[in-house]
């Protein structure tokens, strides 16, 4: 209004809500109002009253969200804030900033506005720097509902096609001052996906300034989980903390430096892929032995037992394989159903303990809404919903669980009041998958869910209970069990999650489709779960499986072998109309024409009352037992009901599948992979088939897995051996690879002349993974250890094929010629 360089205008808020204007030069009131773009009515707090709007005359004091500390006693004025940030007071006033007295000290009032320009919440700044006892620079007005700072300026961003996401208000103000679209998060941990991401939906590029502190890490983490992440580019300001700091360091060159930072920004996708590759490599190295261990499944089973899980581990392995399937496009859902205290949660937890922490999202039935109203992403994760049979048929929890089970994604429509329009609107919450759903319960899940989950029951026998007793006893013995390191197993799962796997092809899937009985409609869905289980096991063995040109892993019959072991009881129960082994045992304990009580069954089967009651309830529900006692609170009088279904096997044996698959190939079907023998696991066909193809001319290294092959096939009963070390024969100067052998073998080690090993490209007319070993075929020397030295070797014509390579951490000798 007048030409001077001093701050002459004071804007404060009175106790009754009025805005007080004062120009120290003496400008008239109406000119001051016109100069700041307001009307006189705008200076009074408006209050809804009756059917119209009026001025509130009730005196009002500010209600802080928390009291101002003594350290803020000096306060902060708008002019001081403007000078510290090198921004004009007029510009800040245009953003709505003003002076105010907060608990008796000056403060700067900063309005956070809705997209339509109305105030959403108010923040007060009391000082420029953090205090000695924490960050006491800010306060929120009582009842504040937080939002992004600058929503009313999003139109500029949409027109520009880009926006900068920063922490706090001063950074956003510095960027706006230079015409750069920006929006501020009111604190790095205050990003809320459902609230904030939707405002940035139509903006093509989102620059995120990542500050070099914990706040910057937190914001980057939130962004990495957000739906906006594919449009994000990270900005690094070098030695400057934030845009305001960059501007204050050299105001005249700010735009130049800012453009350089923009040009050097890195897409979230590229940075994440680089980090992902580095993490995948680290995980691969840690899990190297497991990835190449032919007995991987047995090792998983063993570590579960070593960690204290008692008795039958099949249910744990089933949950483990289901959790592994989170990496697939169509993962497997599962439910553990058994009587109370049978160990349902222990079963799920035993599998979850071998998973990376970030792979699991667990929720209790009592807080079902948290499944919907959270900021978590569910892509390639496992959602564990305990006691799912307790949720009602209708309601948000039921809808969410049903959505996860049916489509492996969570979609839920919620009706909310729009704070801006004050109208009720439908908002869709969509959490993309694929997601694995694991549930537990004492009753089978509702019918509409049961067809989408594989239901596993637990062993309720006395022997299983005794095993649990022993497991508990081990924890209090004089000699405590040694801690079990599972870091390699967690690294295995993390590598599976991070590795570049297209999917898994199951070349014998159609043969399976012909062999699985088709008389049970329920199997239409369960058959898909069977294929997923095979794919999941192939993921575990991916470093020992061939791949198609498009990157897909090729599953083998060996993968089906493990899947059949886990799922046969479940599928047999399905085609037997729900008769489990336990229920069948209970019904068969009653003779035709006999009437017995539950107490008599307890005696006959040597089981607890609770176990018998649970089994009897299942049998009555299925109609295989009938209770003739009609009076309440009287012992049941049990008689046989509908005859039990005939015992059937729903899944073909390994031999049946192999034979049918061989026949399909011999009649013109194209073979995609050799079939492993169900006995030895060896491959029929060219030597080295069904193994990852190595690079040309490999040398063995410590940690390599190798096969001993004769001229036709894998040596009978042979297993892959691992290179443990190299030794030099001082007499001949030759270097020998020392291979670990299985317990019970003839010798503690098998030695191989390392300088005669060469692996070349396979012949063009074979499927061999490595081809035949070239060079001279030399007799391996198998030593028997006796009297402190190795005796005469046994002769056996064979050759060595490297099936997996480790980093070349050990060499066999400087004077040995390696190829």
Largest sheet: 6 strands, antiparallel
| Low-pLDDT segments, ≥5 res | 46-65, 68-72, 667-698, 708-718, 743-749, 752-819
**Dominant shape:** elongated
What is the strand arrangement across the widest sheet?
Answer: 29-28-27-26-25-32
Overall structural class, as computed from helix and strand content, comes to: alpha/beta
| Helical content class | 25-40%
Terminal CA distance reads 85 Å
Number of strands: 32
Radius of gyration: 36 Å
Which range does the strand content fall in? Answer: 15-25%
**What's the tally of helices?**
25
- Roughly what is the average pLDDT, rounded to an integer? 74
Question: How would you summarize what this structure contains?
Answer:
The chain has 819 residues and is an alpha/beta fold.
Question: How would you characterize the overall build of this protein?
Answer:
The structure is a single chain. With 819 residues, the chain is α/β, with parallel strands linked by helices. Among the domains are: 9-140, no CATH class; 151-264, Dna Topoisomerase Vi A Subunit, Chain: A, domain 2 (3-Layer(aba) Sandwich), CATH 3.40.1360.10; 581-640, Arc Repressor Mutant, subunit A, CATH 1.10.10; 705-804, no CATH class. Helices cover 31% and strands 18% of the residues. Strands 29-28-27-26-25-32 form a six-stranded antiparallel β-sheet, with no helix packed on it. It is elongated. The chain starts with 8 loop residues before the first strand and ends in a 15-residue tail after the last strand.
């Amino acid at each position: 209004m007048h030409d001077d360089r001093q701050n002459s205008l004071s804007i404060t808020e009175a106790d009754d809500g009025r805005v007080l204007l004062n120009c120290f030069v003496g400008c008239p009131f109406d000119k001051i109002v016109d100069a700041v773009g307001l009307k006189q009515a705008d200076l009074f707090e408006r209050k809804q009253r009756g059917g119209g709007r009026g001025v509130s005359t009730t005196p009002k004091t500010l209600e802080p969200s928390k009291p101002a500390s003594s350290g803020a006693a000096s306060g902060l004025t708008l002019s001081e804030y403007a000078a510290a940030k090198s921004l004009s007071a007029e510009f800040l006033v245009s953003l709505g900033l003003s002076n105010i007295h907060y608990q008796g000290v000056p403060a700067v009032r900063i309005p956070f506005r809705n997209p339509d320009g109305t105030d959403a919440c108010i923040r007060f700044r009391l000082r420029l720097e953090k205090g000695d006892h924490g960050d006491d620079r800010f306060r929120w007005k009582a009842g504040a509902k937080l939002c992004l700072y600058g929503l009313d300026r999003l139109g500029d961003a949409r027109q520009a096609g880009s926006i900068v996401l920063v922490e706090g208000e001063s950074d956003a103000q510095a960027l706006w001052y230079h015409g750069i679209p920006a929006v501020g998060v009111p604190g790095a941990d205050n990003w809320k996906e459902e609230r904030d991401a939707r405002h940035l939906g139509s903006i093509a590029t989102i620059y995120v300034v990542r500050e070099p502190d914990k706040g910057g890490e937190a914001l980057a983490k939130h962004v990495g989980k957000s739906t906006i992440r594919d449009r994000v580019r990270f900005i690094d300001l070098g030695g400057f903390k934030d845009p305001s700091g960059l501007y204050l360091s050299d105001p005249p060159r700010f735009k130049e430096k800012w453009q350089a930072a923009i040009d050097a920004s890195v897409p979230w996708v590229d940075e994440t892929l680089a980090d992902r590759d580095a993490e995948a490599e680290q995980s691969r190295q840690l899990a190297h032995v497991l990835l190449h261990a032919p007995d991987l499944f047995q090792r998983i089973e063993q570590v579960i037992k070593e960690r204290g899980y008692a008795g039958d581990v099949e249910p744990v392995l089933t949950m483990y394989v289901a959790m592994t399937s989170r990496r697939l496009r169509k993962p497997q859902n599962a439910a553990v159903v058994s009587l109370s205290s049978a160990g349902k949660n222990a079963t799920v937890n035993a599998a979850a303990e071998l998973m990376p922490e970030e792979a699991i999202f667990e929720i209790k039935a009592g807080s079902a809404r948290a499944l919907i109203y959270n900021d978590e992403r569910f892509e390639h994760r496992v959602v564990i919903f305990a006691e799912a049979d307790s949720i009602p048929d209708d309601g948000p929890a039921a809808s969410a669980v049903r959505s996860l089970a049916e489509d492996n994604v969570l979609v839920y429509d919620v009706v909310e009041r729009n704070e801006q329009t004050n109208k009720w609107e439908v908002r869709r919450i969509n959490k993309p998958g694929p997601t694995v759903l694991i549930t537990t319960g004492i009753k089978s899940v509702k019918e509409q869910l049961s067809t989408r989950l594989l239901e596993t029951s637990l062993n309720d026998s006395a022997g299983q209970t005794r095993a649990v007793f022993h497991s508990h006893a081990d924890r209090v013995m004089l000699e405590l069990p040694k801690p079990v390191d599972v870091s390699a197993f967690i690294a295995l799962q993390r590598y599976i999650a991070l590795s570049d796997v297209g999917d898994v092809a199951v070349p014998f899937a159609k043969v399976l489709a012909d062999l699985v009985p088709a008389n049970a409609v329920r199997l239409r869905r369960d058959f898909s779960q069977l294929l997923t289980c095979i794919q999941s096991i192939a993921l575990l063995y991916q470093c020992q499986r061939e791949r198609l040109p498009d990157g897909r892993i090729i599953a083998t019959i060996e993968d089906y072998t493990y899947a059949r072991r886990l799922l046969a009881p479940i599928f047999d129960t399905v085609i037997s109309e729900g008769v489990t082994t336990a229920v069948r045992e209970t019904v068969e304990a009653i003779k035709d024409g006999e009437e017995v009580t539950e107490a008599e069954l307890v005696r006959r089967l040597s089981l607890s009352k609770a176990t018998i009651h649970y089994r009897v309830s299942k049998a009555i529900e299925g109609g295989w037992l009938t209770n003739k006692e009609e009076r309440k609170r009287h012992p049941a009088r049990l008689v046989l009901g509908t005859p039990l279904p005939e015992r059937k096997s729903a899944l073909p044996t390994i031999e049946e599948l192999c034979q049918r698959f061989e026949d399909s190939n011999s009649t013109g079907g194209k073979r995609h992979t050799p079939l492993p023998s169900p006995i030895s696991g060896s491959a029929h066909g060219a030597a080295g088939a069904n193994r990852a193809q190595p690079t040309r001319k490999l040398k063995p290294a410590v940690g390599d897995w190798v096969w001993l092959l004769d001229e036709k096939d894998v040596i009978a009963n042979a297993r892959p051996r691992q290179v443990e070390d190299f030794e030099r024969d001082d007499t001949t100067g030759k270097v020998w690879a020392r291979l670990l052998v299985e317990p019970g073998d003839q010798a503690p080690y098998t030695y191989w002349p390392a300088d005669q090993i060469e692996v070349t490209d396979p012949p063009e007319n074979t499927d061999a993974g490595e081809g035949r070993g070239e060079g001279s075929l030399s007799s391996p020397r198998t030593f028997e250890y006796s009297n402190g030295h190795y005796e005469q070797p046994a002769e056996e014509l064979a050759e060595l094929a490297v099936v997996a390579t480790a980093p070349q951490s050990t060499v066999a000798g400087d004077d040995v010629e390696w190829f």
